[in-house]
Each structure stands twice: as structure tokens, then as C-alpha cells.
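Worked problem 6 (solution included).
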Amino acid sequence: MKPPNRRRDPGRKAFTFLELMVVLFLIAIVTAILLPTVGRTRAHDSGRVKCASNLRQIGQAILLYANENKGSYPRTLYVVGGTLNFSSDASNVATARDPFGKDGLPGRVAANDVTAALFLLIRTQDITPEVFVCPSSNVDKDVYGSVAGISAQSKVSFTDWRKNLSYSLANPYPDAAAVEKGYKTNTTNGAEFAIAADMNGGVGGGYDVTAATERSSPQLMQKANSPNHQGQGQNVLYGDGHASFEQNPFVGTKRDNIYTVSGSTDGSVTTSKTVVGSPRWAGDSVLLPAQN
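Solution. The predicted structure is:
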């Protein structure tokens, strides 16, 4: 049987060459607009993944340190109730002088020094300075001042923590009231306790970690997040050793704001206007130093 003839609908027109070129041109424009955005998204994702890996390595180094120090997390000279310090060590004093004042030699570390506590991991656990640099931040690895003969063993802290450190550590120097409440930084901390995270943004430079609540708008929450990832969130290292990216800082025990001192002694008020200070209850993560 002969198939019926199919005739083109006289009212239907095919695309002209010019129309096809216009469509291709528009596709090229849209692609050119979207490609940088896709590239930035991939770069951000890559930075977050590498940053989380860094924090896991820091967590492993903290655990190794604790195994060698009766379960305690790293800290240097501790004076209960003393002022917190955040040292940089640009002096590059040679190994003839002991940075911690052992064996009767004068030391260079102040009491309650948070950055020196972090630097202990480089001194004792064979962890490299690169691990303390988030690729999404604006800091560079510590090269110890690039002075011949200078190593981590002859230094107390990062050459300049503002230039060589991307992460903040749970305050290892609680005051007497916090100790009485059960605060500690050792291997008995709970799985939800925030041990470390991307750098605390503090207050200033477009950031204000005291301004947000759990119900704040995304725009306000960006100001309370770490500057490492342009306010989009932060990687957090928890007591059980895992690290994850969080979109707000209300992620600690009882959803405590990990970047501020608690507003109460029982964790019922999770944030306050105090950034640098002692924790107030057993699960109160106060991650320091703060960038501003």
C-alpha cells in the first residue's frame, strides 16, 4: 500500500540562518555570564572541603596531644582568672633560649595564651603550618620569618597570627566560675562541643558575631559567620572528631553561639555581647582568637 503524501503546512516556517545565529549568540552570552559563577561556586566548595580537612587534621593532632598529656587539650601557662593573651612571635629568637622557660632559662610565653596553645600542635605533633591556613581565607602559612636556622621549636607562637592563622580554638583557660560549672577542654567533652572552627569574625570589619540570634535573617546571620567563607558559614570541629560546614554559629552544645560567651550560666541564653572572655557553663564554646 502506498503511504499517503505528507505535505508541509504552508503556514509553518523553518528557522532562517540568521535566526539560528541569533540563538547561538544568545546561548554564548548566557554561558559567558554563568561560567564565572559556576567557577566561583566550585572554588568555594573546594575551599570548604580543604578547610574541613584541615580542621580534622587539627582534631587528630589535639587527640594525639591529649593522649600524651593525660587527656588534656593543648594549653600553655594557665593562671585561673587571668587575662587572655593572643601572641605573635616575630622575634625569631634562636634555640639557645627556651621559649617556655624550662631548665631555668627565661621564657617568652605569657599566661593564658590562646594562640600559643594552638602553636603547641606544630611544636609537638609534626603538623605543618599549612594546616592552619584555610584556602578561602586571606592568610598565608607561617614560614617562621624565613630566617635561616629558625624552626617551630624555637618559637612560642605564630610569627603573626593575624597573617598565619585561619582558625579559632575553644578557650582553654576558664575562670574559676566556669571550672566550678564543669567546663573543661579534654577528651571527656561531649560530641556536640565545638573544639575549633573557622576564624571568629568578632565585631568590626563588616562582622558582628553578637548581633544575630537563631531566628535572624540570612543577611544578619552572614555578619555573625566566619569571614573565612565570606559570611556564608563555617567549618566546625566537634568533640567526636568530625568537621562539618554550618550555615550559622548556633551549633554548639544546646545550640550555643560558638563565637561568643554565653549569656547565662546554664546555656539558656546562647549569646551575649562578650566575645573575648571565659566560658560560663560546661558546654559553652568560646572560640578564640577573634579577627576583630
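Discussion: The mean pLDDT is 87.
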